UniProtKB/TrEMBL annotation:
Keyword Transferase assigned: yes
Protein name as catalogued: Glycosyltransferase involved in cell wall bisynthesis
Keyword Transferase in annotation: yes
Species this chain originates from: Caldanaerobius fijiensis DSM 17918
SUPFAM superfamilies (UniProt xref): UDP-Glycosyltransferase/glycogen phosphorylase
All copies of domain Glycosyltransferase subfamily 4-like N-terminal, residue ranges: 17-169
Keywords associated with the record: Transferase
Length: 376
C-alpha cells in the first residue's frame, strides 16, 4: 500500500505529533508498505498571527500534496491535523483521507492566548474544525477527551480512540551509560530526574522547578535534566536561577528524537508535571509512554489522558497538578524505595508494551485504510 502522511507541523521535529508520525511511518515500512511524509515550506509560513500561519501552512501543504500526487498514486492519505485535512479536502483528491486528531486546536489557541475568546479568529478556528470533522470519512482521536471534544464541536459519533504509542524498537530498556552521564556533566551519586517536555505553560515545568528546590532542601542528592525547548525557556531559566538551582540542573533545549533513549537510560525517574489551562483537557504525553517503554517510573499529574495510562502505585505515580510539594513527595517516594521503584518499572514497561506499541497502532491504521479503500 502507498501511503502519504500529511501534517502542517514540521517533520522530523521535537513534539508529540512528530513522534507519532515517525513511529507510525517506521512501523508501516517494516510491514512492507511505502510511506511518504509531506509538510509545508516552513520559512514561507512564519507569521505573527496564528490565523495567517495556519492559512499559509494550509496553502503551502496543498501545493506540496498536489506535487506529490502528480508523481505518485497514493492509496490513502493520513492527515494529522485539521489544516492538513482541509488542504486535501479542497484539492478534491481521489485517495481517501483519514484524519488523526492530536489536540484541541481552538481550545489550545485560547489557552495559549494566541486568539481572544469570542473573537472572529476563534470562530474561524472552530469553523475549520467543524468542517474537517464533519467531512472526514474516518477520524482517530488519540484519547477519549479529544474524542469528546470532537463530538462537542461537530456532533459526530463515529470516532476511533487509538491511544498514543511509541516505537518499541527505538524506546526500550537499556543499560545506564555512566560515560554519557559524565559527558553531560552530571555529578556522580546523584539521582537523575528527567523531564522530556516542551517549555510551554501547559507542561508545568515551573512547578517541577519548585519541587526540585524542595527536594534539594530535603537533602535529596538529585540532578534535574530538562529536554525540550519553547517560549517559556527564558522565564524558566530566570526562575531556576532565582531558586538557586545553578549547578543542579541542565536545560538541554531541543534534543534529537533518535538519541532520547540515551537520556531515558540514565534517568532514575521521569517527571511529567502537566497542568490544565482554562477549559483545555490535558492530552496523553508521548514522552510519558516513551519513559514507560524504556522501563522507567513516571511521576505525572493526575489529569487528562495521563490517567488513562498511569495507575497510581501500580505502574507509576500520579500527583496533584500545580502542587510542588506533591511532585516532590512523589519523586521522593520512588527514589527512597528501591523495591517500589523496580516494581513500578516492571509494570510500566508491561503497560507500554501491551497497549501502546507502534506495531499494535500500525495494524489499527491499516485496518482503517483497508476499510476506506473498500468504501472508496
Amino acid at each position: 500500500m502507498k501511503i502519504l502522511i500529511a501534517s502542517i507541523w514540521m517533520y522530523p521535529f521535537p513534539g508529540s505529533v512528530s513522534s507519532h508520525i515517525r513511529a507510525l511511518k517506521v512501523m508501516l515500512e517494516r510491514l512492507s508498505h511505502s510511506v511518504d511524509v509531506v509538510f509545508p515550506d516552513y520559512p514561507e509560513c512564519q507569521d505573527t498571527s496564528l490565523i495567517k500561519f495556519y492559512e499559509k501552512a494550509r496553502h503551502s501543504l496543498a501545493d506540496k500534496v498536489e506535487l506529490k500526487l502528480r508523481s505518485t498514486k497514493y492509496d490513502v492519505i493520513s492527515c494529522h491535523d485539521v489544516m492538513s485535512f482541509l488542504a486535501c479536502l479542497f484539492l478534491n483528491v481521489n485517495a481517501p483521507q483519514l484524519l488523526t486528531v492530536h489536540g484541541y486546536m481552538s481550545d489550545d489557541a485560547l489557552a495559549a492566548k494566541l486568539v481572544a475568546e469570542n473573537s472572529a479568529e476563534e470562530k474561524y478556528l472552530r469553523y475549520c474544525e467543524r468542517i474537517a470533522y464533519q467531512n472526514a470519512p474516518a477520524i482517530i482521536a488519540v484519547d477519549a477527551n479529544i474524542r469528546d471534544y470532537i463530538k462537542s464541536i461537530a456532533g459526530i459519533k463515529k470516532i476511533i480512540v487509538l491511544k498514543s504509542f511509541v516505537d518499541m524498537e527505538l524506546f526500550k530498556p537499556m543499560e545506564r551509560d555512566e560515560g554519557f552521564k559524565k559527558k553531560l556533566g552530571i555529578p556522580d551519586n546523584r539521582f537523575v530526574i528527567l523531564c522530556p517536555r516542551r517549555l510551554t505553560a501547559k507542561n508545568g515545568i515551573n512547578y517541577l522547578l519548585e519541587a526540585f528546590r524542595i527536594l534539594l532542601d530535603r537533602n535529596v542528592k538529585a540532578y534535574l535534566v530538562i529536554a525540550g525547548d519553547g517560549e517559556e525557556r527564558k522565564n524558566l531559566i530566570n526562575m531556576a536561577e532565582s531558586l538557586g538551582l545553578t549547578g543542579h540542573y541542565l536545560m538541554l533545549g531541543s534534543v534529537n528524537h533518535s538519541i532520547m533513549p540515551m537520556f531515558y537510560a540514565i534517568a532514575d525517574v521521569v517527571c511529567i508535571p502537566s497542568v490544565v489551562i482554562g477549559n483545555m483537557s490535558a492530552d496523553t504525553p508521548i514522552s510519558a509512554l516513551e519513559g514507560m517503554m524504556c522501563g522507567k517510573v513516571v511521576v505525572a499529574s493526575d489529569i487528562g489522558g495521563i490517567k488513562d495510562i498511569i495507575k497510581n502505585g501500580i505502574n507509576g505515580i500520579l500527583v496533584k497538578q500545580r502542587d510542588p510539594y506533591a511532585i516532590a513527595d512523589g519523586i521522593m517516594r520512588v527514589l527512597r524505595d528501591e523495591g517500589l521503584r523496580h516494581y513500578l518499572e516492571r509494570n510500566a514497561y508491561a503497560t507500554a508494551l501491551q497497549g501502546h506499541s507502534s506495531i499494535f497502532a500500525a495494524k489499527i491504521y491499516l485496518k482503517i485504510f483497508e476499510r476506506l479503500l473498500g468504501e472508496n
